[in-house]
Design a protein that fits this description.
Length: 292
């Protein structure tokens, strides 16, 4: 009888301990971090989330697009924890950069792309500028077939568009054209529209569209790191000055060797450490030592 009592008591204690453990697990506080902004950076951020979760299981990261302008305005307003952008906050009208902290996590090439059936493989910088300003309207004017050019531009809030216009248009106004706010949508439209041209971030490039060379130079990692391919931008993640510990932890992970040495390259970005040039918010280039 005594043994039976202790057996029942032991079972009850085990059950209580199990219930306590379950309750403790069930009430573990989950901290949410939201990243909004650049679709050019979105693939890298999304790829980093699973690895981050292994080290920080109580931090849930949500990644959304919307464009660089949205990312910067949302983080500046305190509506989100992280705002990703393809441009410096100083380059975006209406953003008080002094209230934000810039974390550069990668470099992304910007690639002009055309419909794969077009047959055009190379343009000069001048020809590309003439197409996007409306001076050239037919592919035969640049050595291609007798076919009208359909320009697909990025939306006004796109950081990729701002970078492209600064680097290519040199202060000239772009032609009025259809606008899209995401790399993926732009790629799909170009792939399905005869005579179409646009530009996308290098990580989105695949065989559904044809990448153009610029002045005979291809958009490769080697050419981006030396600025032989001049169409590239930093990928920024901005936080407010008083960022939460969870937001700071995710940014630190994005800049960690685990991401920089593996995910950055695998996702077709370029590590900042590989660059032999540095570009500031005024688009001034400075040579730096080596690269990786």
């Amino acid at each position: 009888m005594r043994n039976k009592f202790f057996l029942v008591l032991g079972v009850a204690l085990v059950a209580l301990l199990g219930l306590g453990a379950w309750q403790a697990h069930g009430t573990t506080k989950v901290t949410k971090v939201t990243n909004v902004g650049s679709t050019a950076l979105q693939p890298l951020v999304e790829a980093a989330v699973p690895g981050f979760l292994k080290h920080h299981p109580s931090i849930h990261v949500t990644v959304q697009g919307g464009g660089s302008g949205t990312g910067l305005s949302q983080v500046a307003a305190g509506a989100v924890d992280l705002g990703s952008a393809d441009v410096f906050a100083e380059q975006k009208a209406g953003i008080d950069a002094s209230k934000l902290t810039d974390h550069i996590v990668a470099v992304s090439g910007i690639v002009p792309v055309v419909n794969p059936k077009l047959g055009v493989t190379n343009l000069t910088s001048k020809q590309l500028r003439q197409i996007f300003t409306g001076e050239v309207t037919n592919w035969k004017q640049v050595g291609g077939p007798d076919e009208a050019i359909t320009v697909i531009n990025r939306a006004s809030g796109s950081g990729t568009r701002l970078a492209f216009e600064q680097l290519v248009l040199k202060g000239q106004s772009p032609i009025k054209a259809q606008e899209q706010d995401s790399n993926g949508t732009v790629k799909q439209i170009v792939a399905n529209t005869p005579g179409a041209i646009s530009y996308i971030a290098l990580p989105y490039l695949d065989k559904t569209v044809a990448a153009l060379k610029l002045n005979g130079v291809a958009a490769t990692k080697a050419n981006i790191t030396t600025n032989r391919w001049p169409l590239w931008s930093y990928e920024h993640v901005y936080t407010r000055k008083q960022a939460s510990p969870a937001a700071r932890a995710f940014v630190a992970y994005l800049q960690s060797p685990a991401v920089q040495r593996h995910l950055v390259e695998a996702a077709h970005y370029v590590s900042v450490d590989s660059m032999t040039v540095r570009r500031d918010a005024n688009n001034q280039l400075t040579r730096v030592k080596g690269g990786e």
